[in-house]
Amino acid sequence: MLRAICDVEVNPQDEVLSHEELLEKVKGRDAVLCLLTDTIDEEIIKAGSDLKIIANYAVGYDNVDVACATKHGIWVSNTPGVLTDTTADMAWALLFAVARRIPEADRFTRARKFKAWSATLLLGGDVYGKTLGIIGAGRIGTAVAMRASGFNMRVLYADVRANRELEREIGAEWVDVDTLLRQSDFVSIHVPLMPETRHLIGRRSLAMMKPTAYLINTSRGTVIDEAALANALRDKTIAGAGLDVFEEEPKINPALLELDNVVITPHIASGSVETRTKMATMAAENVLAALNGRTPPNAVNRI
Ligand code: DGY
Fold first, then answer.
1. Dihedral, CA of residue 205, residue 207, residue 210 and residue 212, to nearest 10
2. For the chain, does the N or the C end have fewer beta carbons within 10 angstroms?
3. What's the pLDDT band for 146 if we cut at 50, 70, 90?
4. How close is the Cα of 108 to the center of ligand 1, in Å?
């Protein structure tokens, strides 16, 4: 799509460009189509003085200094909607994986430790009929919540605004975060990373959760204080966690790697062939719109 009208330079390595490389590469470009691993800060924006658009290949855009881009008259766009269901599926995959101890059971079986059926082997927690708490009931949080009706679950949600669709469709209850943490058997996080959501879940919140509860995160790692979570998992303050995102990706807190009651995946929640293709198409459409002098369909700022 882009090559039809632009000179395109693609990072040939499947590796993140350094800040210095990015600084060089944005010079003289009309558009940058970047990944969530590219930090587009003030320095990069200033170096890209010809930029018309920064098209992020992700729905989250905490890696882009949007205020600075806006000040310089540059569009910023994201890829909303197309990854909602794929990400919701992954939140459920993590939820089941940790509650029913699937990765642990897989490791056990592969190690040829399965000698006989046992009444107490690898016991997990039930999912059906339990209470699911959704923190952040936007597009993805709503899609995760909707799936809970298939498992006959009570759904609580915490958000700055009411989600009447969720209440009407599945009888979800709007509660404050503390109530949600105290009453839920599964807590799934779906807030964007902003100053207000940084370390939203820390020692205090973890202490409020039931010792039998599980925490799922497919949003951004920094929403959780990872060191506090590792302590809570080690001390069995909560039963387990399913994490697709981490505070300092790709680094993972070594304490988490030691624990069996956490399932960890490398930020792949939107990673289906279909969805990644749609995200790429959407990002390219945003670039083309900006280069043709139109408002990008998924602009997150106004210039
Ligand atoms: C996003 O889009 O923000 C995800 O983290 C990656 O798909």
1. 110
2. N
3. very high
4. 32
90 CB near ligand 1 (under 6 Å): no
Between CA 90 and CA 93 the distance in angstroms is 5
Amino acid at 89: D
User: How many angstroms separate the CA atoms of 220 and 243, rounded?
Assistant: 10
Strand-pair partners of 264: 243
Instruction: Give the span between the Cα atoms of 234 and 185, in whole angstroms.
Output: 18
What span, in angstroms and rounded, lies between the C-alpha atoms of 249 and 271? 16
Helices within the chain (DSSP H only): 19-26, 42-47, 66-71, 84-99, 102-110, 139-147, 164-170, 177-183, 203-208, 226-234, 254-257, 273-291
Question: Which tokens is 229 given?
Answer: 């979570």
Give the closest residue (by CA) to ligand 1 atom 1: 58
Nearest to 84 by CA among 140, 127, 45: 140
Residue type, 34: C
Q: What is the pLDDT of residues 4-57, one digit of tens each?
A: 999 999 998 889 999 999 999 999 999 999 999 999 999 999 999 999 999 999
Q: What amino acid is encoded at 98 in this protein?
A: V
Residue 278 · residue 80 · CB < 8 Å: no
Q: Looking up tokens 């590219």, which residue turns up? A: 38
Q: pLDDT, tens digit, for every residue of 290-302?
A: 999 999 999 999 9
Distance, CA of 141 to CA of 8 (rounded, Å)? 36
Q: From atom 2 of ligand 1, which residue's Cα is the shortest distance away? A: 58
Closest by Cα among 191, 80, 60 to 138: 191
Q: What angle do CA 290, 138, 74 make, to 5 degrees?
A: 20
